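can u pls check wat happens w/ 2-oxoadipic acid
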Amino acid sequence: MSHPSFVSPDLIRQRFSKAMSDMYREEVPLYGALMELVEQTNRHVLESDPQIARQLNSTGEIQRLDLERHGAIRVGTAAELATLARLFAVMGMQPVGYYDLTPAGVPVHSTAFRAVHEAALQVSPFRVFTSLLRLELIEDLELRAFAQSVLDKRSIFTPKALNLIDRAETEGGLTEPEAQDFVEQALETFRWHHSATVTAEQYQKLSAQHRLIADVVAFKGPHINHLTPRTLDIDIVQAQMPAHGITPKAVIEGPPRRQCPILLRQTSFKALDEPVAFTDQAETRGSHSARFGEIEQRGAALTPKGRALYDRLLNAARDELGDFPNEGNAARYNALMTQHFSEFPDTVEGMRLQELAYFRYFVTEKGVGAPALKSLSLEDLLSDGYLRVEPLVYEDFLPVSAAGIFQSNLGDAAQTHYGEHSNRQAFEQALGRSTIDELGLYAETQRRSIEECFATLR
Ligand code: OOG
Ligand code: NI
């Protein structure tokens, strides 16, 4: 029997990411406007800053920049999460990291499904921030039971999608026509549905408990709630959004503006009010807001030491602010962030020497031509110009930022205080596997790049 040739999971992910973007552009016209603004800004940055252009060329990031986006979804049950993990695995996406949003008053915990190897990320860096609703946090027992019963009745995957997931698992991959079907079928899970699964009154009750609970429970499936392109200069986009009819949130989440960007900076614009038909209404008379827009700028991945410093400086700035950042205190917040983050070295060398970030090493032209260098240390090779470094790009998310994004889109009324906290174990049990530690992935990529350099040098 001849072996069918399977489509690589990386290519399936690349196609899926494109299909998702096309669908979202059709569903949310403002997303198209945002994409154009981001493309313009990126072009402008590449033209006006040859240093950035050179850096992105040498790391290969230039090729993935236009493909680069993340999405976010929220699911209601363990079974939904576990099947999603299998669906994403078909596209080479693994659950990386654990994010607990309950300290910020959002009743979910989350992971990010993404590719884990630098070669796979290069083909498609598409990621999906995936949250599981924590029904146990609904205090009203009757409402909790109701929410559970509604969720238990729905099926968020098409029978064909389930079939193809089984096939990929048992056969070890998907053939070309199967992969095409898979992308089409998988997309259905993330589509927006105007018709709700509950009555208007039931929706109100769920929403009164927490708007997020209504968003997860009252609909047929985990509609993609935003799709985020990557910009090379988030401050420019933030400043130009109003002129394009888009009102951004008050502050950019994440670190302040720097010469050497670190981690992740994000901003978003408010959810849209969309017409909804509840089950007791013949027409679409209700409304719901869930979907929004977001942009992000990615910088260097930090080591545990760098991350601890980031967390300390962020907390210090926020403590001094004394409140959640908002319209009224945005200027003060930005000033406090700049002030506190002056402690964080803002050069590649500074971050490398203090082991604050992860890097990728490259052999220079001088290194390629030079004889017998293997006995030199990494430091010597660098200082003598045989090697050079570029920071590894951060591929993940930030819990405090994610909470800020959730909140800006749910409204301030959504700030509830939950007594119960982080429960990674319960999350992983629901997921059906453990989540991968992102820091280990960066360390591996850095190690591989050093090994490749030594293999190239004679
Ligand atoms: C996810 C919010 C978090 C991010 O990029 O940190 C997020 C959601 O609203 O479901 O998108
Ligand atoms: Ni996001």
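The first strand starts at residue 69 and ends at 75.
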